[in-house]
Amino acid sequence: MPQPPPAEPGMREEEVDTPALLLDLDAFEHNLAAMAALLAPTGTKLRPHAKTHKSPVIALRQMAHGAIGQCVQKVAEAEILAWGGVPDVMVTNEVVGARKLARLAALARIARVSVCADDPAQVAAIEAAAEAAGVRIPVLVEIDVGAARCGLPPGPPAVALAERIAASRHLSFHGLQAYHGSAQHIREPERRAAAIAAAAEHARRTVEQLRQRGLDCPVVGGAGTGTFAHEAASGVYTEIQAGSYAFMDADYARNEQAPPFRHSLFVLATVMSAASPHIAVLDAGHKAVPTDSGLPLVQGRERVRYVSASDEHGKLLVEDPADRPRLGEKLRLIPGHCDPTVDRYDWYVGVRKGRVECLWPVAARGAMA
């Protein structure tokens, strides 16, 4: 059941009930403007990934800064964005199952909705759903450019599937999905750049082979917050699918030559115990902040480290007793991975200069179907 908002507009930040998902609006708006400025000279379009923010409000703000639409991983996310007014949504994933495809096809009546495929059987199923709904669905062929997850091998196998899509009366060939997810957190800049150069070459070769078969490739999509500059400069990618740039989590900050964005997303937590000079405990454990990409950082307190979590407790190690947090003090945690952090909360608490300015629902929370 959705929880009531933990704050009200006008409230001071230290009055917000915790744990709470805090969005620093100045930093957030800086990040949206920064990404737009970085991509403008390249001619590459931005299609931010909404699996990060799960919010039509944020999606429309990104589009106000020049984004051409949104991408998602799940049909349920696509539904929430389209119903929330986003006119162009790409499902950067394979969708399997008649019920899900029927929902996707129905959604195509109110928004431009595209989807990925890497198997002829998937294409046939998408085609049947589109025919039943009386719509035409754009389909991208996903190619494996190094992540070893979904996707056909680049080259002839991808071209053959594209020809199958293009021959359909109910589908249109929309391009290639060429995302190298595992490259996003390669720490060394040289290795990160090399991984994307190889991915771009796979995509380039496939586009050329498509053209040899008489097929235009309007979209080559991919990239993330860790590598977007390389894809944008490649001359191959037409759309950048970065999502975390809006929030900038702790794990991206660990990359050498980290992405040039500010931390804007935090979990606000309260010190619930400070009985020891060197230990304090927060009311934010595993249920409040995920640790799949490492433990969170404590903003502005270099000598206070979040060292372990249990279900409802976050343990802090205080290196200098003079810097020990006070009982009841509110601290901002920078999560290691913003996507699953957002999915734990019903509300964004937007703050500016210490005051709550707005409350936005995390409308696609839990949208896994």
User: For the report, how would you describe the main beta sheet?
Assistant: 9 strands, mixed
Order of helices and strands: EHEHHEHEHEHEHEHEHEHEEEEEEHEE
Oligomerization state of this entry? single chain
Number of domains: 2
Shape: globular
From the coordinates shown, what is the CATH architecture of the largest domain?
A: Alpha-Beta Barrel
What can you see in these coordinates?
By secondary structure, the chain is α/β, with parallel strands linked by helices. The protein has 2 domains: 13-21 and 261-361, Lyase, Ornithine Decarboxylase, Chain A, domain 1 (Beta Barrel), CATH 2.40.37; 44-248, TIM Barrel (Alpha-Beta Barrel). Helix content is 30%, strand content 24%. The chain is built from 11 helices and 17 strands. The protein has helices at residues 25-39, 50-53, 56-64, 75-83, 98-107, 120-133, 156-166, 189-212, 228-233, 250-253, 338-342, and strands at residues 20-24, 45-46, 70-72, 88-94, 112-117, 137-142, 171-177, 219-222, 239-240, 265-276, 279-282, 297-298, 304-309, 314-318, 330-334, 347-352, 355-361. The strands form 2 sheets. Strands 1, 10, 11, 12, 13, 14, 15, 16 and 17 form a 9-stranded mixed β-sheet that branches. The protein has an 8-stranded parallel β-sheet with strand order 2-9-8-7-6-5-4-3. Helix 4 packs parallel to helix 5 and helix 5 crosses helix 6 (120-133). The chain is globular, with a radius of gyration of 22 Å. The mean pLDDT is 97.
Précis, in short:
The protein has 369 residues and is α/β, with parallel strands linked by helices.
